[in-house]
Sequence to fold (376 residues):
Amino acid sequence: MPSRVRLQSVEFASVRVTERTEWTFALVSDWQGTSAIIETTSGEVVEIIADLVTALRGRYIDSEACVSDFLGLDLTELRANLALGTAVSALRTAIIELQCQTEGVGMTEAMGGLRQDSVQLYANINRTPLVPDRTPTQFGAVAERAVREGFAVIKCAPFDNIRPPATAGDILDIARPGLERVAAIRAAIGPDVHILVDCHSRFESHTAPLVAEELAKMDVGWFEEPLQPRNDSEGLVGIAKSITIPIAGGESAYGESLFTDLVTRGAVKVITPDIKHCGGVGEALSAGIAATKAGGRISLHSPSGPMSLLASANVTAAMPGTLPLEHAVYEAPWRAEVISPPEHIEGGRLRFPGSHGQGATLNWDIVSRHGRRWRV
Fold:
């Protein structure tokens, strides 16, 4: 039986990566002085986490799944309020991490998996500063670099210039720059490397199938979130029936049942839970198992920092049959040094550090150089 946890305090740290990216961490401590470092998001979420730790302080917690009950929160609230769901997700993962450290086991084993040396990653090239002008040539060059370094799957988000609404007659002209970016990637990496396309909910039910038809000609492996699954799952069902490319999605969804529902209704074929939002590592594992039983697949969403990637990798390793895990490449040359021991990615795979819990902690020298540490 997992050890009982009594939360005591929380503090925060963040690292500024680029103009658009900041990695934020919660350092959750128990009454024994053990700390769990969990990657989360900034802003309102930090304040909510601090309040929730205060509400839970001193309480004996046997299972992370009981956190919402202790706080008097129901599933409807957690799904409707993204910041609240994100804060609860951080605490649920922190409790598992604290239990792992107390018991001296790795997170993969704690979730019922067998210890592994590594997991396969796919390269998300959308966050790199190496595509400042977002030209097709830049997309192709970065994708080619990732393939040279061992990644066998490349993801891009080529349509961020699109702002709905659009008509069916206009959409292909509007989407042309994005389609040209995907075409440049395919030309650069050849026919044997998989391409995934993230749409960031830029389309509508009447425009998405037309774009998907063009992407199918370039042998794209999935069509991620043409609409927002949390807001328009019915629309996704209709799109899925009319296209040949599998739809992926669910990066901001909370709770196993919502992911299962997306699969069983045919809205998505591949669920993409993010441990920062979905309920934490335990809920991501449950969602993946349930979705697989329902005929779907899982690939965790993780375009974040090295702590989030490592925790997501433990979920991936604990679950048989997972698709490669997302990794945002080339955001900062010092990324690997943010954690200790340093993040080790080689041949398109993340190598596990082989220790208790997630297996790594923050490198405070890097935090002080590129960020800050504070209490609320």
